[in-house]
């Protein structure tokens, strides 16, 4: 009688099944072909000739391969020591199957990898997928040199939303350009394309305005809790903008007004409209400050401020805040939003504001960022304005995970990692048509965090889930499947020394 055999374990080694990937965000379609491409010292990268931006994408990939594997991979030149090369070709294609600027197709074969994209942004999203497919460890037994085996097959992928963002509040606490760059590195790995910087609030003004120097000389020197604050010079800001652009991420500047303006009024008292003597503010209350919305000089000031920032912000948007102006009279608030919209447009930008801005008669090109009031999101869509979804109870990165969280607020409730993931942006606001949704953004307010480690504790892993909600089609969203892929991000997060919150709802191993 045959002995009872243990069930046969499915063996996939060397790894050849592309369907067993751990990609985040999950791609639209993956078709495995059950062989593998051996990434090795014999691999070279070629990019569409004469396209500087595609070349940069190739160089970016080579650099990341070096960090992960130690391999030196040539870009657009033959490897003289190893003339028989296996090619990764990053190709500009006008195929009609590439429906959005960020769509890409990956064809992984035994001896070559083809990445097709219409734009360099699409190619950049595609190389993030490739980075995630490179295994942590090489196989050293198949050949006389190490191979990193990438399972073969085809991937067709495109984003669900054109706008996938994170907001960072650098006003309540200041974050250095090095900290923001590290944040951008992590976000770009998960295909984010927008970083919204909240550059001013009651507690601080964080960007140099050459025509109004006291904004940073005075307004830049405070923060929540009484620390020294800080600010970006215009050169610093340009450096951030270009660092983000190398990652195909747009920076959206926000100057919050007419409320949240104590630091501006502290610097120039004529701006103040709340009738009180202004003192530095380092607490965390909201809603007590306002610009003097009836004075022409305030609009002349804003013309300078918006003009200077717009001129160093290549992206299409300027965010005017507009939230919680509780001490601005309603008619003054409406008048203010409508006037500032014209100034933003004069400087060549589309206005974004927190959802209260729809109280004004705003242009259909302006965008409302839904955080709190459903009626405002619906009103925006009736106005043919687009909506960015940032519902506080689901998408606020500054909410605590649970009662034991080391940092964070809880006014919108706790947001555990699974709750952050388990909602569908396309159906979340009842009655809001899909066509009105520009995308999603997760805001990270910084009342309770003041350095990169604390930032990472609140942002990760939740921001990885929002990346998937913004990119992957709704039918591909599944917590049980996602949480396994999330656990598999640990080697990357460790390599980047990200101090993520190791929630118990995920089996991190
Ligand atoms: C509300 S959301 C605010 C911010 C606070 C945040 C804290 C919004 C548009 N305004 O001023 O920092 O709550 O969670």
UniProtKB/TrEMBL annotation:
Ranges of residues in domain Beta-hexosaminidase bacterial type N-terminal: 22-140
Catalytic activity line of the entry: Hydrolysis of terminal non-reducing N-acetyl-D-hexosamine residues in N-acetyl-beta-D-hexosaminides
UniProt superkingdom: Bacteria
Active site (record annotation): 324 (proton donor)
Entry's Gene Ontology cellular component terms: membrane
Ranges where the Glycoside hydrolase family 20 catalytic domain occurs: 161-473
GO BP of this protein: carbohydrate metabolic process; glycosaminoglycan metabolic process
SUPFAM superfamilies per the UniProt record, alphabetical: (Trans)glycosidases, beta-N-acetylhexosaminidase-like domain
EC primary class: hydrolase
GO MF term list: beta-N-acetylhexosaminidase activity
Protein name: beta-N-acetylhexosaminidase
Organism encoding this protein: Flagellimonas maritima
């Amino acid at each position: 009688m045959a002995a009872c055999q243990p069930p046969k374990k499915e063996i996939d080694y060397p790894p050849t099944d592309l369907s067993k990937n751990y990609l985040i965000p999950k791609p639209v379609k993956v078709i495995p072909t059950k062989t593998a491409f051996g990434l090795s010292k014999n691999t070279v990268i070629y990019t569409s000739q004469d396209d500087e931006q595609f070349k940069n994408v190739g160089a970016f990939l080579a650099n990341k391969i070096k960090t992960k594997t130690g391999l030196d991979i040539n870009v657009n030149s033959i490897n003289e020591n190893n003339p028989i090369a296996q090619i990764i070709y990053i190709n500009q294609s006008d195929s009609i199957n590439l429906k959005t600027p960020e769509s890409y197709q990956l064809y992984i074969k035994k001896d070559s990898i083809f990445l097709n994209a219409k734009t360099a942004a699409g190619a950049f999203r595609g190389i993030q997928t490739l980075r995630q497919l490179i295994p942590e460890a090489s196989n050293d037994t198949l050949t006389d040199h190490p191979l990193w085996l990438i399972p073969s097959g085809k991937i067709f992928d495109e984003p669900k939303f054109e706008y996938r963002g994170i907001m960072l509040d650098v006003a309540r606490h200041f974050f250095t350009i090095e900290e923001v760059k590290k944040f951008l590195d992590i976000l770009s790995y998960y295909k984010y394309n927008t970083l919204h910087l909240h550059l001013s609030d009651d507690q601080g003004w964080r960007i140099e305005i050459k025509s109004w120097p006291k904004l940073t000389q005075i307004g830049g020197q405070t923060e929540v809790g009484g620390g020294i604050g800080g600010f970006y010079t215009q050169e610093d800001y340009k450096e951030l903008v270009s660092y983000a652009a190398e990652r195909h991420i747009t920076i959206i500047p926000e100057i919050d007004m007419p409320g949240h303006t104590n630091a501006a009024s502290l610097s120039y008292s004529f701006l103040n409209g709340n009738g009180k003597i202004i003192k530095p503010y380092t607490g965390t209350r909201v809603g007590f400050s306002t610009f003097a919305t009836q004075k022409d000089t305030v609009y002349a000031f804003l013309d300078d401020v918006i003009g200077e920032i717009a001129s160093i912000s290549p992206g299409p948007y300027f965010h005017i805040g507009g939230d919680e102006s509780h001490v601005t009279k309603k008619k003054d608030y409406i008048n203010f939003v409508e006037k500032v919209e014209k100034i933003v447009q004069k400087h060549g930008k589309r206005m974004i504001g927190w959802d209260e801005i729809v109280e004004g008669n705003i242009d259909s090109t302006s965008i409302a960022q839904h955080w709190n009031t459903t009626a405002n999101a619906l009103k925006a869509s009736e106005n043919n304005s687009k909506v960015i979804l940032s519902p506080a109870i689901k998408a606020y990165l500054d909410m605590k995970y649970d009662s034991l969280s080391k940092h964070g607020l809880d006014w919108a409730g706790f947001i555990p990692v699974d709750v952050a993931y388990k909602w569908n942006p396309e159906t979340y606001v009842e009655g809001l048509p899909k066509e009105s949704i520009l995308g999603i953004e997760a805001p990270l307010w910084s009342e309770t965090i003041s350095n990169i480690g604390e930032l990472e504790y609140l942002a990760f892993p939740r921001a990885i889930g929002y990346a998937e909600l913004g990119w992957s089609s709704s039918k591909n969203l599944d917590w049980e499947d996602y949480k396994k892929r999330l656990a598999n991000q640990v080697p990357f997060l460790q390599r980047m020394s990200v101090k993520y919150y190791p929630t118990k709802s995920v089996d991190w191993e």
